[in-house]
Amino acid sequence: MPKRGYHHGDLRNALVEAAIELIKEKGPTGFTLSEAAKQAGVTPAAVYRHFEGREDLIAEAARQGYEIFADLMEYAYDSGQPSDLASFEATGRAYLAFANKYPGHYVAMFESGISINRTPELAAVAQRAFAVLEKAADRLSEHIPPEMRPPPQMFSAHIWAMSHGVVELFARSAPGTKSPFPPEDLLETGIGIYLRGLGLIPPDS
Amino acid sequence: MPKRGYHHGDLRNALVEAAIELIKEKGPTGFTLSEAAKQAGVTPAAVYRHFEGREDLIAEAARQGYEIFADLMEYAYDSGQPSDLASFEATGRAYLAFANKYPGHYVAMFESGISINRTPELAAVAQRAFAVLEKAADRLSEHIPPEMRPPPQMFSAHIWAMSHGVVELFARSAPGTKSPFPPEDLLETGIGIYLRGLGLIPPDS
DNA sequence: TGTACATCAGTGAACGCGCGTTCACTGATGTAC
DNA sequence: TGTACATCAGTGAACGCGCGTTCACTGATGTAC
């Protein structure tokens, strides 16, 4: 809580929160710097005391999102240990849980068009998040019979793709598409079938 | 080729093509009615002779996309017959192929934010496309041992999600993400493993 | 074939709007003496 | 404790811009006689 009691008190955070809220409600397109300023009870010009501009504000929202996301992934991984299978499944679930719980952050991260390589700091925290998924895949792959073992990168990509697809198509109110099943069930069963295909789950379970 | 030889000749189509080109290059946000008009060599006001406005132009681009997409899906399905498995795999591949070959249409359809229910005509053609995927899943599900047979809708959703995820994350230049594998391979192997998990492909193939 | 007329696709000027951004400023807060 | 000063977060007015949209018009094309 730095500099409490100034004019606003914590405008920087208020702006990020407003941005996340607006992005959640209107999408990255609908978000405007002026509107975010207004929502924080402040003149648009005041934003420039804390950010370089519109893009910079979105990037900060994304950065905070990756921070939360990485924490969530790490927690999920740890909570599954010592079972590598449980850890892996937990990270898949965490992806969907994150998208549900932090939709504004999620959109800022994945749909706002800001590059992950915008700043070294942003790249680093994103890397931290993805590394968890890769580690989980790495460990799990050692349990696969070698003759049908795909490269770990490949199957972490599969799970990431399915998770992302489920989120985009069924967890968020996609244009005109209504989900035939709860997204959690969809992802759970999808990953289950996939892991069975890898020989990691017995066929009868 | 209606009304050839008028002032422009075929402005309506020229505008749709310009829109698709612009959406492909700058995303749905970067697309502007004025720019599309300029690219077609015409004043912005001329657009209103053929479309109700900006949204209507995007919707027409999406409609044409769904038309092509539906044709492609139907062709893929037919090309796999009489094997239900081959048909199913072909429709998955067709999804990715469409996204690759018609990126402008793809974005207009799936990332532009226009609702599928904007007009009955649009809803109908979209329905035609999705119906192919559902039919393929339906037929294929009859080959699954009943005790591990998920609802066909569910597993068409799985394949759709994975296809969509692969396209979004790995086939298009996502922000800062570089694909570890060719998207085609990723989708092919992903679907393969999934189908093995359903008992549709023998474990050793 | 030639002329007079109707059609209507595209023009060009104008509009109001909200955007992101700049700038000199002001006034509340914190600090030195 | 009180006063004088420095800091700097936020103000408010202004900007240029490109947007989508409107409107009366014009002039090339097609058609009737």
Can you put this structure into words, describing what you see?
The structure is a homodimer of 205-residue chains. The first copy, chain A, is mainly α and 205 residues long. Chain A has two domains: 1-51, Orthogonal Bundle (Arc Repressor Mutant, subunit A); 55-197, Tetracycline Repressor, domain 2 (Orthogonal Bundle), CATH 1.10.357. Chain A has helices at 11-30, 33-39, 54-80, 84-101, 103-110, 120-141, 152-171, 183-197. The longest helix of chain A has 27 residues, at 54-80. The radius of gyration of chain A is 20 Å and the shape is elongated. At the A-B interface, α1, α7 and α8 of A face α1, α7 and α8 of B.
How does the helix and strand content of chain A classify structurally?
mainly alpha
| Strand and helix order of chain A | HHHHHHHH
The CATH architecture of the largest domain in chain A can be named as Orthogonal Bundle
Domains counted in the coordinates of chain A: how many?
Answer: 2
User: How does the major sheet of chain A shape up?
Assistant: none
Q: Which CATH first-tier class of the largest domain in chain A would you pick?
A: Mainly Alpha
Low-pLDDT stretches of chain A are 1-6
Distance between the termini of chain A: 51 Å
CATH superfamily of the largest domain in chain A, by name, is Tetracycline Repressor, domain 2
In angstroms, what is the radius of gyration of chain A?
Answer: 20 Å
Helical run tally of chain A: 8
Overall shape of chain A: it is: elongated
